[in-house]
Structure formats: C-alpha cells, structure tokens
Give the backbone structure.
Amino acid sequence: MDDEQQPRGHGALAGFTVGVTAARRADELGVLLRRRGAAVLHAPALRIVPLADDRDLLAATEELIARVPDVVVATTAIGFRGWVEAADGWGLGEPLLGGLRGAELLARGPKVKGAIRAAGLTEKWSPTSESMAEVLDRLLGEGVEGRRIAVQLHGEPLPGFVEALRAAGAEVVGVPVYRWMPPEDIAPVDRLLDATVSHGVDALTFTSAPAAASLLSRAEDRGLLPALLTALHHEVLPACVGPVTALPLQARGVDTVHPDRFRLGPLVQLLCQELPGRARALPLAGHRVEIRGHAVLVDDALRPVPPAGMSLLRALSRRPGWVVARADLLRALPGSGRDEHAVETAMARLRTALGAPKLIQTVVKRGYRLALDPAADSKYADPAQPISTGTSSGRGGQAL
C-alpha cells in the first residue's frame, strides 16, 4: 500500500488480525506487525529442542569429527552458531572447528557468512541469490561422485536437495541443528485454529515448513482440517516466508503468497499490500467506508466493531445497496439461534461502533441495506434484480 493510500494516523495493517505460527523469532515478527497496526494472535505450532540436549546433533557432530567431510553446506546463521556453541558444551568445539577448517565451506547467504567468520572460519563460496538451488547447481556442476558432503538441515533445505546429491554419487550427512517437536502447551494452537476456521484472523503467517505441517496435523486430529482448508482457500490469507515453507500447504491444494526476499521484513511488507487490497471499500451516505478484519475505516477514522457486527456488515456488503432480510442476517450471526431480536441488538451495536448511523438503513418489515451513494449504483448493481427507488423494491429504505 502506498503512503498516500494508508489510513491517516494508522498503519497499513490497522483493523486486521494476523496469526503467527513461528516458534523462533516470533517476537520480532510480532513487533513488525504491530508497528503497522495489526492485532497479533501468536500460537507456536512447534517447539525447538535445545541443541545441547539433542542426541541426534551430538551423533552427527562426532561422526563428522571422526571422518571430516569434503564439503559443508551451512544454511542458517543461528543454526551454525548454535551448532558450534553446542559442540563447545560437549567439549567438542575445537575438534569440530578443526574439521571444518579442512572442508570446503559453502554459505547460503550473508548472515551465514558472518556466523562462519565469527567462528574463525572462512567460507569458500556463497550464492548471490541466497538460494539453495544455486548451491545445488554449483555442487552438481563441479561433480560430487564419491565426495562426502555435510548439510546443515533447517526443516527441509530444498525439496530434493539431499536426494539429488545422493543420486549424483555423493555421501550426504545431515546435520540436524533444529529438531522440532509439538508444543508442550497445545491450547494456543487450538485457539488459533478455532479463530481461523471462524474467520477471526485475516492472515496466517508461516516461517517454516514444519510449522505449517504441524498446524495441518493438529487440525486433522481435531477434525477441523476441511474447515481450515476452506478458510485458507477463501477468507484467510496464508502468507509464507518462502516457497519451501509453503510446500505442506500447497500439497493440500492451498495457494499461498510469499515475498521475493525470504525475510521477515519483506513478509510483513507483503501483508501490508495484500490485506488492504482485499478490504471492501464502499461509498456510503457520503462517507468512504472500508471494511477490514475486526474494524472499519470511516473516512480514515478506525472504528473497532464487535464480531457480531462484522458478521452483519459483511453480509450486507456482499450486495451493497440491496435489502438483506432479517432472516438472512440472523443466519450470518454466529450462535444466534432463531430469535430475530438478536439481529436488532447486533445492528444497534454496529451502528454505534461505526459512529455514523445513516450508513445502514432500515427497510420497514423487510430488513436492512447499506446506504450506497446514488452515483455508485451502476457499479454495484445486482444484475439479477431490477433497480428501483421505491420502498417496495430491494433498493428502498430509510435510516432509523
């Protein structure tokens, strides 16, 4: 969203709720989102096993010290630093660094290069694209048959990366610097799932493929997978930090978005473009009204709206200017039962929240309609019904 398009006095994400599934760097992502006005619902879908307690990493480290590899591929800075720190804790720091000095070190990006140099080592090469695909192309181009290659694993570094090296004749040793397990407290994940299937969030963010897979697995365990997939197909935007992270979702047929640069900052900037672009903007009763996730912009004034009111407003906005019967609005209200009085109560609260009661008109004995400005009629006309200005038609009404 351009600066001149942003609501004055509010961030680009004001009025939207974003779910964060990350375990690592979740605080950083949350700060970036809140600075732009978003409400954040955090539920780590996984927890990371502390490296010092990870027997798999210890075994891989001992194996690499015993038999020094020809090539070491370092994929993340925090993972490489954690590996060296864990080795120090086991009394294996110097033997590990000695082995790494004798190997060809490839660094995926500049942050990894910094971690390598901070350990007193020097990388041989790093791709300008920060892409594991470019690392794979270089290795296969040089030839890997008979070579021993250690790959620092971060979830899945690249689909087919290890398999391609092995198919070309390399011996590949995985270094599992991150090992994921389900969160000790599953309640936040369940709350996030419930909010997603009820459209209580506008976007879900994913920064690792294991987190995406874990959320899908939990939804399946609870019988919520179909509802979750439906929400991600329609109402809730799934935003991933990169294409590898998106793979578990895409395997379920979910289309995702991701930034060109696989970083948290660009991910937030992408949300700043995508979510406001999905908001419904309407000219109502001389005002510009933009319907966001949990709030409405009325002439750039941010108006928080209760969930029941947002349900009514979204139902009305599907056919702006046309009368929506009370019975239809009742069905749009979650958990309202059969009492149409619930519609009147929620409508009164909605009008109060909007601060401009004339935005919604009451059509006596029929229902409610949004007070669409006459000049906008042709743009929002419903081709299935005739346009008329009489109170007996779908477009008539009065503000009450």
